[in-house]
Structure formats: structure tokens, C-alpha cells
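Sample intake — Autoinducer 2 import system permease protein LsrD
Collected from: Conexibacter stalactiti
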Amino acid sequence: MSALATSRRSSPLGTTTLAGLKPALFITLVSIVAVVIAAIVSEPFRSPTNVESLLFQMAPLLLVAAGQAIVITTAGIDLSVGSMMSLATVLAAASSSSAGAVVAIVVAVGLLGGLGNGIGVVSGVNPLVMTLGTMAIFRGVALLVLGQPGGVVPADLLTPLTTVFGHVPLTFLLALGGVAILWLASAETRWGRALFAVGGDEAHARRARLPVRRTLLIAYSLSGLFAALAGLALVARIYSGDPNVGDPFALDSITAALIGGIAVTGGRGSVLAVIPAVLLLALTDNLLNLAGVFSYWQYIAKGVILILTLAAYHAAGRPTGLLTMARGGWRKRGGAA
């Protein structure tokens, strides 16, 4: 039986049935309970202004985490997404072009940056090493374009980015749409089924004559694209460019993907699971901010959430692959352990 047929039958995203969303049910339940408790115990949390702020906060992480989830599904990783987000913000703030031109430039840079990562990975460079290198490159370019936070975002770009319907930001709605598109692509296309086959067993996928190189190139290109779009969503929060503002999102996007049930060894998980995972992370930051807790505690809280969630998955008999990775290192391209 071919790897494509196997992935169609066994992949959690092989169909659009509810069975394909089982990995996300646990974190969804936790997120819903957390929101209900927060709404009961915290009056400031229930305010429309805070809800709007929370949704603005979620939008960039939703986009970058969705792209990261696609890469992790291939048994890879993209450490460059935070620097790509920073680069996108400075390109938006340092350009005097129209909104359409700025968006086109940011999209092109994101795609090319992601494609560069993909080319390195399919050429045999370890994903960790490749994206670590491009992380430094993107950060350096961002600093060259804008050495410090500032710049002026074109008004015809900032206006749509900050548009709010009721108390729901447009960027949040677009981010949800982006996640849905990636989920459909991974669930209902031949590329998506090849994605899970490559992540599950790349050597077997090659023997089955699946388009491994093309699948990986598209995955990393999408990660770069969604990181760049996340940078534009971040502009809606900071109203300027910042060459360092995206730095925390590399870790946050990986955290969101993992607590959403994406297997770090590849081949399992649901892109939709990043939605409740991002909600839980954003909720943690929001509540700590409302409580006046020092911001450094947010990193500690996210680490605790990651450890507890992965421990719960393991206890439930659904290991995420972290133990395998720790024993054998990041799986080499070609299926070797």
C-alpha cells in the first residue's frame, strides 16, 4: 500500500470528519473552561475593550502558529518565523508606498524567505540549523531597514489593519480564515496527504514516489508567508515597525503547535488545534497583565502550560514524540533516526 493511501487512512487530517479533530478536543475543553472561569472571577476580563484587545493579541499568533504547525507536521521546525515577523513590520513602517504595494512586498519577502528555508532543508541541511541561520539573516536585514522601533505605517494600510466590527478586529477574522485555509489544504488536497506521509515516514514516502521535495518546499514557503502576514497583523497592535518585536513568537508558535497536539516527530495533528492553543496562551498573558503581574512571569506560565499539556497527552497514551526526539535527536531528512 502506498504512503499516500496510508496517510489518507490514518492521518488525523486525512478527512474532514470529527474524528480528524480528536487531538484538539482536550486543549479546546481546557481553553473553554479557562475562559469561563476568567469571565466569572474577573470583571475587567469581561469588558468589551479587553475582549477586543485579546482578539487583537491572538491574530498574529494564530497566523504564525498555523504556518509553524504545517512545518512541524513534516517533522521539521522553523525558528525564523519571529524574525520574519519583525522584518514584515519594518517593511510596512519604512515604506512610503501604497498599501497594496506594501502588502505585495511583505508577501513576496515571506514567500521567498520560506522558500529559501525549504531549499536548504531539501538540500540536506537540518531544519533546526537552516532556520536558525535564516533567523539571524532576517533579523539583520530588519535592523538594516530600521535600526530601532519607529517608522510610519501608511494610513491606507493601518486603517484596514485596525478595523473593528463591533469588538471583533478584522485581523482576527482574517487570521481565522487563514487557519481554515491551511486546514482545508492539509485535509482535502493531495499535497496535504503527502504532507502527512512525508512527516510520518519520509523514506517510505520517497519509495512510494511521492513529491517529497515539492511538499517540503511548499510547507516552508507557507510558513514564511504566514509569518510575514502575522507581522502585518502585529502592526495593528504596535502602529509602527520594530526589528525585534517578533522575537518571542518563534517560541510561542512552537508552543501553540505542540500543546495543540501536533507531533514534533511529524505526521500527526490538526492545524485547527492551534486555535484553542493560541486562545489559552493569549488568555494567560491577558489575565497576568490584568493582574499587574510582572511580564517575565508570562514566560514561566507558558512553560508550565506546555509541560503540563504534554504530560497530559502522554498520560492519555498519545505521546507527542518529544521522548523520541530527545533520544535520537531531530529526525534527519530521509527518515533516518
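Post-analysis note: The first helix runs from residue 3 to 10.
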